[in-house]
Design a protein that fits this description.
A hairpin with a 5-residue loop joins strand 26 and strand 27. The chain has 3 domains: about 325 residues, Rossmann fold (3-Layer(aba) Sandwich), CATH 3.40.50.12780; about 130 residues, Rossmann fold (3-Layer(aba) Sandwich), CATH 3.40.50.980; about 100 residues, GMP Synthetase, Chain A, domain 3, CATH 3.30.300. By secondary structure, it is of the alpha/beta class. The radius of gyration is 24 Å and the shape is globular. Strands 5-4-17-16-18-19-20 form a 7-stranded mixed beta sheet, sandwiched between helices. Strands 7-6-8-11-12 form a 5-stranded parallel beta sheet, with helices on both faces. A 4-stranded antiparallel beta sheet has the order 23-24-26-27.
Length: about 625
């Protein structure tokens, strides 16, 4: 715990108050008044938000709370794709640009709301043609291209449960997610393009589906010329759509019907399949996109995340499109073709809301101010951060160099499990570098000790949420006990697994994970998942991994490896292990360092004490080691 954490030095850092016009012009102009109104009538608050959307049948009750299970908008009927597309087409936005995609070599594609609706309807009809029905699972493993978003919305249209897998994962990680979710169809592309190089996605899928008894069809977006050959039970993405109607009646979904499964790393080795449902998730992502990001009709909005993560689900696809935003996406990376890549795009596309990760911000800092200074960033109105704590130094740089000392920074805290923003500094409120901010209206969050008692200002403890919210996960797929642990770690509260400090005026600083999760470049990597990958190598007997502070990524992964008898440490073996982890889990999970060791610190019950490894590595006191094996 962190009860003695000294937050004074951080609180002494200058705070920033945006121009009063930001508050005056925001959708939610008075945080304190709105929050008080929420506390006085939580269900009334969420009902007002829900009524801004289209429902096929209204709810009987806003919230049905049977601890630790919640149902939201009970017995209501809806379709999310209709709220993201049809609602705007039917309300004079049919010719508004919904989606802009930018690829390498200057390629650009633009979809109006009407064009996007037509493409989604055709692909939805294609999925129905190959037997996909309401409740079936569809795995989507694609690069960040418009077809990925079309596939997601098409699943939503027909009531299929999508399981989007980040295109950087390897074959074994993809196979696990396909098998666990029992996907009927896999949608992929032949390649993704990164820094001018083609990455062979289909080859990974070919290996991943070898032992997946539920998969009936693989749909392939063919980007190369000449097109890659297709095997039996493989179909071309656009050939599947050919000749099919551009209308498709949205499936009537219950508010509590499963919407998607998204896997996030856990500390037990097996990723958790987080299950979100239709009604509450729609309301939560719509509300936060409109009222937290303050998205307005004239904005061009860019979230730099990949759609394979929850940030992409909530704040590239469903939230912004439900609001009716113009969403920009790109396959380009921040440093290709040069370090001005992102700033050039902001200038060219007149981006007004920019949402990125602290890892990217620290990388921009490393590249120097001369790159952003070459471009006109005056279109920016709001800048945001997501994925891990935004350290004060990165905040200061982001505010001064990118925001030009005027743009509010939304340093957002939330999780795959929460589905939506939970804590930030609302537009117009004073910003304190190092502090994410306060719970947004609609959320009751606090910092407590292990017994659930609120800590005093200046002290640290466990971050918790004290009451349910609409976009909360409903369970962990096939493992409800893991869901229940979130609510029973501290009785009566949702324990998020993060350590935090409560500052003055209720501002909250997020310190990082309290469990065995390493956040690398904003991505949650389970220690056990990396360790399992290492141990699956024929030369490895045992492994432990820890996170080390990294000036760019936030954390890097260091592995400690015990070799099997007959194997000797060598640079060649080290490279072989790195290659093995890359192929198994993907490059994001690769250790930055590997040490070969003779033994690992363990408890008497055999549990590896990673904190002892970390303490030794970073040179600090390991604390209580009374349970350490002799």
């Amino acid at each position: 715990m962190t009860e003695d954490f000294n937050v004074k030095l951080v609180e002494d850092v200058k705070s920033y108050t945006p121009d009063p016009l930001y508050r005056k012009n925001a959708w939610m102009a008075d945080y304190e008044k709105t929050y008080a109104k929420f506390l006085a009538d939580p269900d009334g608050f969420w009902e007002r938000m829900a009524k801004e959307l289209d429902w096929i049948r209204p709810w009987d009750k806003v919230r049905d709370w049977n601890y630790p299970y919640a149902k939201w908008f009970t017995n209501a009927k809806l379709n999310i794709s209709a709220n993201c597309l049809d609602r705007h087409v039917n309300n004079s936005r049919l010719n508004k640009v919904a989606l802009i995609w930018k690829g390498e070599a200057g390629r650009e594609r633009i979809f109006t709301y009407q064009k996007l609706l037509s493409q989604v309807a055709r692909f939805a009809n294609g999925l129905k043609k190959i037997g996909v029905k309401k409740g079936d699972c569809v795995c989507i493993y694609m690069p960040l291209v418009p077809e990925q978003i079309i596939a997601m919305l098409a699943c939503a249209r027909i009531g299929a449960v999508h399981n989007v897998v980040f295109g950087g994962f390897g074959a074994q990680a993809l196979n696990m997610r396909i098998r666990d979710a029992e996907a009927k169809v896999v949608i992929t592309a032949d390649i993704s393009i990164r820094r001018g190089k083609a990455i062979q996605l289909k080859a990974i899928v070919d290996e991943a589906v070898l032992n997946t008894p539920t998969v009936e069809t693989v749909v392939v977006l063919r980007r190369r010329d000449p097109p890659v050959d297709l095997h039996e039970n493989e179909l071309d993405f656009y050939e599947l759509m050919a000749g099919l109607p551009d209308t498709c009646t949205p499936e009537v979904m219950d508010a509590e019907d499963p919407f998607f499964i998204l896997y996030t790393s856990g500390s037990t080795g097996k990723p958790k399949g987080i299950v979100h449902t239709c009604g509450g998730y729609m309301v939560g992502t719509y509300y936060t996109s409109k009222y937290i990001f303050d998205i307005k009709d004239k904005d061009t909005y860019w979230c730099t995340a990949d759609t394979g993560w929850i940030t992409g689900h909530s704040y590239i696809v469903y939230g912004p499109l439900a609001v009716g935003a113009t969403v920009f996406i790109t396959e380009l990376t921040p440093d290709f073709p040069d370090a001005g890549s992102y700033w050039s795009l902001i200038e060219e596309q007149k981006i007004s809301i920019f949402y990125t990760a602290p890892t990217a911000i620290r990388m921009f800092m490393k590249m120097g101010e001369s790159w952003p200074d070459k471009y006109d960033l005056s279109s920016l109105r709001i800048i945001g951060s997501v994925g891990e704590p935004l350290n004060p130094e990165a905040f200061e740089w982001y505010y001064r160099v990118i925001g030009k000392n005027r743009c509010p920074i939304l340093d957002t805290w939330w999780q795959t499990e929460t589905g939506m923003h939970m804590i930030t500094t609302m537009i117009g409120e004073p910003m304190r570098p190092g502090f994410a901010g306060k719970p947004i209206p609609g959320i009751e969050a606090d910092v407590v000790d292990k017994d659930g008692r609120p800590v005093k200002p200046g002290n640290g403890g466990l971050l918790v949420v004290k009451s349910p919210w609409p976009a909360m996960m409903r369970t962990v797929y096939k493992d409800d006990e893991r869901y229940r642990k979130y609510w029973y770690t501290i009785d009566g509260m949702y324990a998020v697994g993060d350590l935090a400090v409560k500052g003055k005026d209720g501002y909250i600083m997020i310190l990082g994970r309290a469990d065995d999760i390493i956040i690398v470049a904003g991505h949650n990597i389970g220690t056990a998942e990396v360790e399992s990958a290492l141990v699956s190598h024929h030369a490895v007997a045992e492994a432990a991994v820890i996170g080390k502070p990294d000036p760019v990524k936030g954390n890097s992964i260091k592995a400690f490896v015990i070799l099997r008898v007959g194997n000797q440490p060598s640079e060649r073996l080290k490279q072989d292990l790195l290659h093995h982890v890359r192929n198994t889990l993907g490059p994001i999970a690769m250790p930055h360092e590997i040490d070969f060791v003779d033994k690992l610190p363990k408890t008497r019950s055999g549990k590896i004490m990673r904190r002892v490894l970390k303490a030794k590595e970073l040179g600090y006191d390991p604390g209580d080691v009374s349970t350490l094996e002799e």
